[in-house]
TrEMBL record:
Belongs to the CutA family. It comes from Alteromonas aestuariivivens. It comes from the Bacteria. This is Divalent-cation tolerance protein CutA. InterPro entries: Ion_tolerance_CutA, N-reg_PII-like_a/b, N-reg_PII/ATP_PRibTrfase_C.
């Protein structure tokens, strides 16, 4: 079970919910946690910026990372959104199986 954890910041909870809902609805992610109140300090276009954002923690399988990215960029307002993928995440067998099952198409 190759599971990936993805970090993506968004400007607010509303955008986070839109992206999270779409990722889970489309089975591109099993779960997306929206962590409000993060302060990001970064350099953008030669200037140091400080912003209040929300951090998305996206849990998916390695095979769904590209799909999740395509869905995210369609809704994300940033010119260059954060998209940091940590591959081969380890965890309990049952939780990793749950992530895998939630990102598969349901059988009828």
């Amino acid at each position: 079970m190759a599971v990936s954890l993805i970090f993506c910041t968004v400007p607010n909870q509303e955008v986070g919910r839109l992206i999270a809902n779409q990722l889970v609805e489309q089975r591109a992610a099993a779960c997306v946690k929206i962590v409000p109140g993060v302060t990001s300090v970064y350099r953008w276009q030669g200037k140091v910026e400080v912003d209040q954002e929300c951090q998305l923690l996206i849990k998916t399988t390695a095979g769904k990372v590209a799909m999740a990215y395509q869905l995210m960029v369609q809704m994300h307002p940033y010119e260059e959104p954060e998209w940091l993928v940590l591959d081969n995440a380890s965890g309990s067998k049952g939780y990793l199986e749950w992530i895998t099952n939630q990102t598969m198409k349901p059988t009828k």
